Amino acid sequence: MIDNIFFGLILSALLGALVGVEREIRLQKEKITDFAGFRTYTLISVLGFLLGFLAFDIFENSYFLLTGIFGIFMAIIFAYRAVTKMSPTSVSLISEVSAIVVFIIGVLVSISYYYFAIFLSILLTGTLFLGNAFHSFAKHLKQKEMYATLKFAIISLIILPILPNENYSPLDFPIIGDILLSFNIFDPTLLESLDIFNFFYIWLMVVLISGIGYFGYIMMKLFGTEKGILFTGFLGGLMSSTALTSSFAIESRKLSYLSSPLIVGTVIASSIMFFRIIVEVAIINPSLLPNILLVFLIMGFSGILIAVFIFKRKRLNHVKKFNLKSPFAFWPAFKFGIFFVFILFLAKLFSILFGDSGIYLVAFFSGLADVDAITITLSTLSAEGSISQLAATIGIMIAAVTNTIFKGAIAFYLGSKEFGKGVMIAFGSIILIGIISLILTLFL
Known about the structure:
By secondary structure, the chain is mainly alpha-helical. Helices cover 81% and strands 0% of the residues. It has 2 domains: 2-129, no CATH class; 143-162 and 196-443, no CATH class. The longest helix is centred in the first third of the chain and has 29 residues, at 2-30.
């Protein structure tokens, strides 16, 4: 229990300090008067932790916490009034609201909601740091951008939550199932096993691709074309490099003069994928990690070096503005969602027909759709002893290479000519380096 108290104290202090540093930088940079800085926000978070700990663990009485909340509210109100009298033109409610949120963060730590407290701290700090940029963005917001925001909100916040999150087979669709059974050439058991039709997951891919394009548009408006694209590429690699490649390919047709930074963002996202595979294997089957670690580190860093080379060689600093018909592209993302379902269908079919003996074929087709699923599957089978570590290593490598080739094909098919050519050359180089590294690792 004592260890938990010290951990909570340290974590709440660090999270409060994170917000406090941002506020302190603002005070020093803008030379304004405010009621709280680094020390105050740190202490407010610690106070929230202590009151939460006393209320729930010591006295087991929530009224103790409510009294503390009332006290902190009154202190913030008096501080706000005092600072407003001293400097009425430079004070806003944002610091006071932030202080209340920081207090709540401390309380969350006291009840062991660590991840939520960390997420809330990062969200608050990011919002405060990007405040001026968001003000500028809102000031120059156009009607088409507001319309695009509403459309994205509809497909992500209204349609997505109401879709069923369960798998359906072809037999679960009344008319389609009856037609397939009427031919008497399809095994009902096989059709029932093809349960890959998850409407929530399919629509989530549509939302993800559309969202990356929309997010990239906002980042370009906030930070400029190059920085916005590079930042989006990094985050896209953490989520889905395939979705980002599709989104950037679509953008390259609209903004042909931004092909080079879009290529860089795509290569960065795909490079991040290799590091993501390393993390997944390390968590599921650490004994398999030595077999793939060196190869994927080489491929990941090779991709980043290629991206840096392209970025330095083809800078676009002269591009100050960009003209985009709409920050929201739904139909290209929807078409990709349909194609994604088709690839999932093939992967599932080959898995059923060939079983474990066709592990490499399964890895090939699975890699077309999703490299994470096959990585987790092969790592698990290898840990259980169902397949050899060599088979798992080669299977994961095949999936990663296949996925990279598939993304190159997407770039070539959906993107502009320059974008497709640039991505194909970059991906081809990464694959060649990876294959050479694998051969040297396995046989030397």
